[in-house]
Design brief:
There is one protein chain. The chain is of the alpha/beta class. Helices cover 33% and strands 34% of the residues. It contains 8 helices and 13 strands. The strands form 3 sheets. It has a 9-stranded mixed beta sheet, with helices on both faces. It has a two-stranded antiparallel ribbon with strand order 1-2. Helix 5 runs parallel beside helix 7.
């Protein structure tokens, strides 16, 4: 039970068995790189084992129709508890109160994405200090839940680009905060091949790593070997 399968043998091998229990795992990348579909596959893997599954659809990207098209999705979808926070403060309240729903039953908690509502709305520059503090508070709460309960915490993260050394660096929104709290980090990227993405392991067990990656293919049935 220490690892939760991603639904992909290649990605599980990259991770050393799957997503680790009691840790915060972060998937980040540009749009259409496979963050949500990979999250959905993890949801189905957890549901098949009759674990509890809570999904915070902060980006409004969760599609019930898409879930049902995945292998086994139609039968397992009813086991998923879905939250759709309207703003960053509501996301924080859900994170704060979800402890009341946790038991000894192993649990997968997905937040897709942790920074979507953090960026939303009209905010003055000085207002981001308050949002940074709230993001830290939410991540600290998630970290505590992962430590105290038999839980996998899976986050997705949006990205932004910044110029560095004559090139554009793509990194997560609120990168310092997310890198601090995340025990495992996967970066998902596009490739020249249709429907094929690449998955780079950047952090494992709290330590930065580099050079390990694997491609995967997105199909109507989910993620397959590329």
């Amino acid at each position: 039970m220490d690892f939760l399968s991603s639904g992909s043998h290649a990605i599980d091998r990259l991770l050393g068995g799957g997503f680790p229990l009691h840790q915060i795992s972060l998937l980040y990348g540009e749009a259409a790189t496979g963050k949500t579909i990979l999250s959905m596959q993890c949801v189905l893997e957890a549901a098949r084992k009759e674990y509890k599954v809570f999904y915070l659809d902060s980006d409004q990207s969760f599609s019930a129709n898409r879930m049902e098209r995945l292998a086994g999705g139609r039968e397992l979808a009813e086991r998923i508890v879905l939250f759709r926070p309207e703003d960053f403060d509501e996301q924080g309240r859900i994170v704060e109160n979800i402890e009341n729903l946790l038991t000894k039953t192993p649990t997968l908690l997905v937040v897709d994405s942790i920074t979507g509502l953090y960026r939303g709305g009209q905010v003055k520059p000085e207002g981001y200090f308050g949002r940074d503090r709230e993001l830290n508070r939410q991540l600290a709460q998630l970290d505590a839940l992962g430590s105290r309960f038999a839980a996998w915490i899976l986050l997705t993260g949006q990205v932004h680009s910044s110029p560095t050394g004559g090139e554009w660096l793509v990194e997560p929104v609120a990168t310092r905060t997310l890198r601090h709290w995340s025990d495992l980090i996967l970066r998902l990227t596009q490739t020249p091949r249709p429907n094929v993405r690449d998955c780079f392991l950047e952090k494992k067990n709290g330590l930065d790593v580099s050079g390990n990656h694997c491609p995967f293919k997105i199909t109507d049935e989910g993620i397959e070997e590329a």
